[in-house]
Amino acid sequence: MTFLLRCVLICVSLVLTVYVLGRIRHSKMRIEDSIFWVMFSMLLVVFSIFPKVADFISSLVGTYSTANFIFTLMIFILLTKVFFQSIKISQLERRVTELIQMLALDKEEAIEKEEHKL
Amino acid sequence: MTDRVLVVIPAYNEALNIERVVGEVIENYPMYDYVIINDGSTDNTAKICRKHGWKIIDLPMNLGLAGAFQTGLKYAHRKGYGYAIQFDGDGQHRPEFILPMKEKMDQGYDIVIGSRFVTEKKPRSLRMLGSRMLSGAIWFTTGVKVNDPTSGMRMFSRKMIKEFADGLNYGPEPDTISYLIRHGARVAEIPVIMDERILGESYLNPLNAAKYMGKMLFSILLVQSFRIRDRR
Fold first, then answer.
1. Is the CB of residue A78 less than 8 Å away from at least one CB of chain B?
2. In this complex, which of A94, A97, A104 lies closest to B57 when CB atoms are compared?
3. CB 3.0–4.6 Å: which of A24, B12, B86, B111 could bond B39 by disulfide?
4. What whole-number distance in Å separates Cα of residue B107 and Cα of residue B109?
């Protein structure tokens, strides 16, 4: 890894972390949801400042090179995240559907009651 | 209410057909209750129904056929109907077949499908190839022969109404039928005649049909086999 590349990596991961923290501070996101991104950006910072950590884990796991290890790890983390988000979206869609149906049914019931009274 | 039939008519932008379709049911078949589910139409479907004073449930947003039909069954469940039938708002289904379907159901079935091909043979078209494949898939996974799995004219018993009203993944589609058969629902078919849709455009272009087929086959053959039936 060249010196310049390292600098870029450190800068990018630091900027990302600061940006994520700023967004969370302005409460655009629930804390439960923000934990993932804080951890993720911190992991990037650690790997860019101390590449030896990544080298060490890589040799421990037995991947061919550190780059391979980082790619695999990131892809795995992101895939899991996407999967759980997909579940979440499904649940949200279901809730919206239920709400729309309930709204319509209740409205109809109210109209019916009104007619009974008259 | 337990022996009443509720005709559920999902309607999405059916302003051209709704008057004729619903009018016929109401005038000639007053023994059936009906409810129109307006699935967030952007044309004046709702206005026409209001003008006539018809029973209509207005969904504030478009949910698609599955969501609209489920609303109808929720309504049936709330009111305690014993039978509910899915009846298209585009004039393909004929109300004279509701009675024979109800009679068939009284012989102890949970789902009665109005089938185009019980006695008649399927014509050899691309569309019917799809129908054959779905029949095959249902037969392969359940051992039950359903001649017309894509027929939209289906009647459901009280037990099924409850299940459809509460459940997730209970679209009015062949994969739900296969799932229910696998879990002990008894399904019968009676021969019906269906008309071509009267006016307006069907969404069934070749691409959509292919997508639908793929989704259904995948669902029937694979996904439904590891679904757990939640009893609530």
1. no
2. A104
3. B12
4. 6
Which amino acid would we find at residue B153?
A: M
Strand order from edge to edge, sheet including B111-115: B56-59, B33-39, B5-11, B83-86, B154-157, B111-115, B187-191
Name the residue facing A101 among B56, B70, B168 (closest C-beta): B70
pLDDT at A67 over 90: no
Check pLDDT > 80 for residue A94.
yes
CB pairs under 8 A between A and B: 33
Domains with residue ranges and CATH for chain B: 5-226 (3.90.550.10)
Evaluate whether B68 touches B35 at the Cβ level (below 8 Å).
no
B75 pLDDT above the threshold of 90: yes
Q: By the CB < 8 Å criterion, does B58 face chain A?
A: yes
- The DSSP call for residue A29 is S
State yes or no: ipTM above 0.85.
no
Those residues with Cβ within 8 angstroms of residue B9's Cβ, 6 or more apart along the chain or in another chain = B21, B22, B25, B34, B35, B36, B37, B72, B87, B88, B89
Closest CA–CA distance from residue B68 to any residue of chain A (Å): 8
List CB contacts of B100: < 8 A, sequence separation 6 or more.
Answer: B190
Measured distance CA(B71)–CA(A100) in Å, rounded? 9
